[in-house]
Design brief:
The complex is a heterodimer of chains A (310) and B (432). With 310 residues, chain A is an alpha/beta fold. Helices cover 31% and strands 28% of the residues of chain A. Chain A contains 9 helices and 13 strands. In chain A, helix 2 crosses helix 3 and helix 4 runs parallel beside helix 5. The two termini of chain A are 32 Å apart. Chain B is mainly α and 432 residues long. Chain B folds into 2 domains: 234 residues, no CATH class; 158 residues, abc type-2 transporter like fold (3-Layer(aba) Sandwich), CATH 3.40.1710. Chain B has 17 helices and 4 strands. In chain B, strand 1, helix 4 and strand 2 form a beta-alpha-beta unit. In chain B, helix 6 packs across helix 7, helix 10 packs parallel to helix 13 and helix 16 runs antiparallel to helix 17. The longest helix of chain B has 31 residues. Classes of the chains: A alpha/beta (310), B mainly alpha (432).
């Protein structure tokens, strides 16, 4: 369905994307996970034809986009990171305009618009101007605008940036519906929870390079630990997490604000040792919990940096 | 075709959706054009605004000086008010009066003598505001005529004239240096004038005498404003509405460019570029919508000018429409060029506003180009607005035929191609 081969894009000395290759099959959801500036948006821009790569190619159903008007572009729907709507127009007028860009008019356009509005739950607000919408509603309409010409591949560039949890869940529901309809989704995000929830396969990208490309289960196997003890310290400043690595059961230790995350293989043997060490060294704590390993840890393990702190 | 029309429809919808901007965009040029039109003569000239304010200080208070003041006051080009020397100095210095005429003591007597014998001429002082040197020439011309008329009138029919003639005759008789033939000729002339005076005094028929009004200027002018036809008066609003229309359409074109520049930085541009649309369609649709908006503005302005100020297209309607269409296209291409050459919105806004104002000013949209120095007038042939103004003036109040619109239309279309070509070549399509 979508094949990306060895994409490279430079801006002067800065290499934005370097040798990026992956494929996405029909009905598959691919997550491009990485911190800001990792090269996710550049990759999506090249796939959608907004940017020319310095080298490499993008094949959509085996065909390259040859020109601005190439019909292959009809196979792609783009949901840009920035809101791509006219605030002064109504939701319906916006969608009518975007439908017309794909030569949709008349009853066919009306039907597409009604379907898209229904999917994102904005049918009852169709006649309202976009400037009266909340951020979450705008994000949903932004998604609807990319669906009008019924593209097979949907490129979603951080589609939940700046929305409240309720709207985010609504968008996730919309995307799951689309997935069930067999659409191929390429989803960029720096929120690991989104990638974990939505994606069949996750491509971790950092400094323009792919550092991992696998299913969530397989990515977890890359971690040296199977359990994490999360300890909320009373005072985190000055705490040196690496000292915990001297304990035999501890495989990783990371402090983020006041929360200490310690990776261990065996929870029943590792947890008492860690808590005892904290108490003996004068570090009081207010909460202890165990966590499953997540993509944050995978990213940390692969790049040596935290996804959030990058 | 569906996407092309949708793109145009979107631009027009966005333009008309902002009703406040549309109203302001039409009301402001109408107000300015009405004001400038009034200043530049309005409908058939505006005598009130063109009168020159002149003060008169009569230090002589003789029959001749009073006659002179009356002559000046009767001139339709002057707004004459009596004053004192100190007050006149103050008012002219402050710009409240253009000039002040000081009639010195004994002016009547000395002027009469100087008329017949060439003796020392009395001096009339003229105080003037140096920023009004053009009007000074006019005031001096009117003053000369008025003095000749007032002095000669008194010399041929007044009491002062009789006294001066008698006195002059006596001097002619007693002047040892005068040759005999000259003496005889002057004696005959003055004697004739004396007889005429005495006869008029006896019969009381001075008022009916052919010389009762003094010497007359032996010609008069017949003025005819060459406009589109007989009995069609010059309408200053035609020029001002054309000028303001051009100015505001240029700003609208500028706005099109800036908006496009801003659009490139948004997700909307990404969505447009992701759609299967050609570059020609994206830029072309914007050029067409901008042209339609420009056409709308010109239509509203000239409709208003027609209804309220009686501005008529006295020349070729086809030529008028052609000039408007060519200028609208040129404006759209100018806007696209701004978007193509601009780096940042802020910097582009700054230099393009400057360029627009220069085009408006040198094109004669504010004031007619004939007041510019010659070298600057020659320079304006490279300014597209100059051709638009020439075309609109030609088709409105000058009442010229279509042939007079051909050059402006061709040149404006040439500028359209130039600006459009630069826009297409330099436009940065990729969002880096």
């Amino acid at each position: 369905m979508l094949e990306v081969n060895n994409l490279t894009k430079r801006y002067g000395k800065l290499v934005a994307v370097s040798g990026v290759s992956f494929r996405a099959d029909r009905g598959e959801t691919i997550g491009l996970l990485g911190p800001n500036g990792a090269g996710k948006t550049t990759t999506v821009s090249i796939i959608s034809g907004l940017l020319n790569p310095d080298s490499g190619e993008v094949l959509i159903e085996g065909k390259q986009v040859r020109s601005d008007t190439d019909p292959v572009k009809l196979r792609i729907g783009l949901v840009p990171q920035d809101m791509a709507l006219y605030d002064q127009l109504s939701a319906r007028d916006n969608l009518t305009f975007f439908a017309a860009l794909y030569s949709l008019a008349g009853p066919k356009a009306k039907q597409s618009i009604a379907d898209a509005l229904h999917l994102v739950g904005l049918a009852d607000r169709a006649g309202d101007k976009v400037k009266t919408f909340s951020g979450g509603m705008k994000r949903r309409l932004n998604l609807a605008a990319a669906l009008l010409h019924d593209p097979q591949i949907l490129l979603l560039d951080e589609p939940t940036v700046g929305v409240d949890p309720q709207s985010r869940n609504a968008i996730f529901d919309n995307l799951e519906t689309l997935k069930k309809r067999g659409k191929t989704l390429v989803y960029t995000t720096h929120y690991m929870e989104e990638a974990e929830r939505l994606c069949d396969r996750i491509i971790i990208i950092d400094h323009g390079k792919i550092v991992a490309n696998d299913t969530l289960q397989e990515l977890h196997k890359l971690l040296p630990v199977t359990n994490v003890i999360a300890v909320e310290l009373d005072r985190g400043d000055g705490f040196q997490a690496e000292k915990l690595l001297s304990l035999p059961e501890v495989k990783s230790a990371e402090l983020s604000r006041n929360t200490l995350r310690v990776g261990v293989h065996d929870l029943s043997r590792g947890a008492p040792g860690v808590l005892r060490w904290l108490a003996e060294n004068g570090h009081t704590f207010r909460h202890v919990a165990s966590e499953q390993p997540n993509l944050e840890m995978v990213f940390l393990s692969l790049t040596g940096r935290s996804l959030r702190d990058s | 075709m569906i996407p092309f029309l949708a793109l145009i429809r979107r631009d027009l919808k966005l333009f008309f959706n902002d009703r406040r901007a549309v109203v302001v965009g039409l009301v402001v040029p109408i107000l300015l054009a009405s004001f400038f039109g009034y200043l530049f003569g309005g409908q058939g000239g505006n005598a009130e605004t063109s009168k020159v304010a002149v003060l008169v200080i009569d230090q002589d208070d003789s029959a001749i000086s009073r006659g002179l003041v009356a002559q000046l006051a009767g001139d339709s080009n002057l707004d004459v008010k009596p004053s004192t020397l100190d007050a006149a100095h103050d008012l002219v210095r402050k710009g409240k009066a253009t000039a002040a005429i000081v009639i010195p003591k004994d002016f009547g007597r000395d002027a009469g003598r100087a008329l017949f014998t060439g003796e020392t001429k009395p001096e009339i002082g003229v105080l003037y505001d140096p920023s009004h040197h053009v009007e000074l020439g006019m005031v001096k011309g009117i003053l000369s005529g008025a003095v000749m008329q007032a002095v000669s009138k008194e010399m041929f029919s007044g009491r002062t004239g009789r006294d001066v003639v008698n006195e002059s005759l006596a001097r002619v008789q007693s002047d040892p240096q005068m040759s005999e033939p000259n003496r005889k000729a002057l004696r005959d002339l003055l004697g004739g004038v004396q007889e005429l005076n005495q006869e008029q005094a006896r019969s009381g028929a001075a008022a009916q005498s052919p010389t009762a009004g003094g010497l007359n200027i032996p010609f008069q002018t017949k003025e005819e404003a060459i406009t589109s036809g007989q009995n069609v008066e010059y309408n200053g609003y035609a020029h001002s509405f054309g000028g303001m229309g051009i100015q505001f359409i240029l700003f609208m074109g500028l706005d099109v460019g800036i908006t496009l520049l801003m659009l490139r930085q948004t997700g909307l541009w990404q969505r447009l570029r992701a759609a299967p649309l050609s570059r020609t369609m994206l830029l072309g649709s914007r050029a067409v919508s901008a042209s339609l908006m420009a056409g709308f503005i010109l239509t509203v302005l000239f409709s208003f000018a027609r209804v309220v100020f009686g501005v008529r297209i006295q020349g070729s309607l086809a030529g008028f429409v052609g000039v408007c269409a060519a200028f609208s296209l040129m404006t759209a291409a100018f806007g696209l060029m701004v978007a193509a050459l601009g780096e940042t919105v802020e910097a582009t806004r700054g230099y393009s506003i400057m360029a627009t104002l220069v085009m408006v000013m040198l094109g004669g949209a504010w004031v007619p180009t004939f007041i510019f120095p010659k070298w600057l007038q020659r320079l304006t042939i490279v300014i597209p607005t100059r051709w638009a103004m020439d075309g609109l003036d030609g088709m409105t109040w000058r009442g010229l035929g279509f042939s007079a619109a051909v050059a402006p239309i061709a040149i404006l279309l040439g500028f359209t191609l130039l600006f459009g070509g630069i826009a297409v070549m330099r436009f940065r399509w990729r969002t880096e």
